[in-house]
């Protein structure tokens, strides 16, 4: 299920539309994930406040989205491009890779809300494939 | 027995009372066939599913999407007894249609995304949680009679 040229173009196009809203989208997706999939809160026991709108959630949403931005820029070779991030997730954060799917789903939900007419089925499948490829690249160093 | 909070009950009733079943059903099923193309295996008799445009424009997909959505009505009206309500449909999906239960989750995800785009910011995280819980319960009930 590798990314076709059409997929890459669709991802770059919607990323272009996202523009400056990336941080807000990252926050929204993360906030949703923590509410809809409470088991994900186990990774953030060190935060005082896990509620939507809180400072740590905002900040972390931004961090996550800058990672996604990096992935978009390295879309032609995600495995090598995201090696450092993979090492971080594998050796330090040790996030169960199942959670990548969960966050991806919430990102797609936020995109559907923010871009109801742009988030067509074709853009949806391209983004879903892209986020799956990112998840795979992030899992590279796990074992 | 599934426990529903008052908020969850109200949210589900609210979403479905305002829903355009034909449109949402059509869009959710079509999206599923586009985003997860292996789901097309169940629709060999539907004709042209060659690309996204063909799928979106296919009248059989539209009709069947509505059938599926109206099927969800049973659960909306019997939230305290979803498992029993879907016993027959579960047997149907297992014995006759031979649908891999993982597909219930895939369709649920597409339905969530379509409803999200319709409700916009009204589809808050809490509403999303209630909606996804509801669809997960339906999926579980539909899987119950598989063996």
UniProtKB/TrEMBL annotation, chain A:
Annotated InterPro entries: Globin, Globin-like_sf, Globin/Proto, Hemoglobin_a-typ, Hemoglobin_oxygen_transport, Hemoglobin_pi
Transmembrane segments: none
Record GO biological process: hydrogen peroxide catabolic process
Keywords from the UniProt entry: Heme, Iron, Metal-binding, Oxygen transport, Transport
GO CC terms, sorted: blood microparticle; haptoglobin-hemoglobin complex; hemoglobin complex
Sequence ranges assigned to domain Globin in this UniProt record: 2-143
Domain of life assignment: Eukaryota
PROSITE patterns (alphabetical): GLOBIN (PS01033)
GO terms of molecular function: haptoglobin binding; heme binding; iron ion binding; organic acid binding; oxygen binding; oxygen carrier activity; peroxidase activity
Similarity comment: family membership: Belongs to the globin family.
PANTHER family, A to Z: HEMOGLOBIN FAMILY MEMBER, HEMOGLOBIN SUBUNIT ZETA
Name used for this protein in its record: Hemoglobin subunit alpha-like
From TrEMBL, chain B:
Annotated GO MF terms: haptoglobin binding; heme binding; metal ion binding; organic acid binding; oxygen binding; oxygen carrier activity; peroxidase activity
Tagged with keyword Metal-binding: yes
Chain ranges of the Globin domain: 3-147
Pfam families per record: Globin
Keywords of this entry: Heme, Iron, Metal-binding, Oxygen transport, Transport
One record GO biological process: hydrogen peroxide catabolic process
Entry superkingdom: Eukaryota
InterPro entries in UniProt: Globin, Globin-like_sf, Globin/Proto, Hemoglobin_b, Hemoglobin_oxygen_transport
Secreted recorded as keyword: no
Cellular component per GO, a single term: blood microparticle
Gene3D superfamilies for the chain: Globins (1.10.490.10)
UniProt similarity note: Belongs to the globin family.
Identification of the protein by name: Hemoglobin subunit epsilon 1
Species this protein is from: Astyanax mexicanus (Blind cave fish)
Biological classification of the source: Eukaryota, Metazoa, Chordata, Craniata, Vertebrata
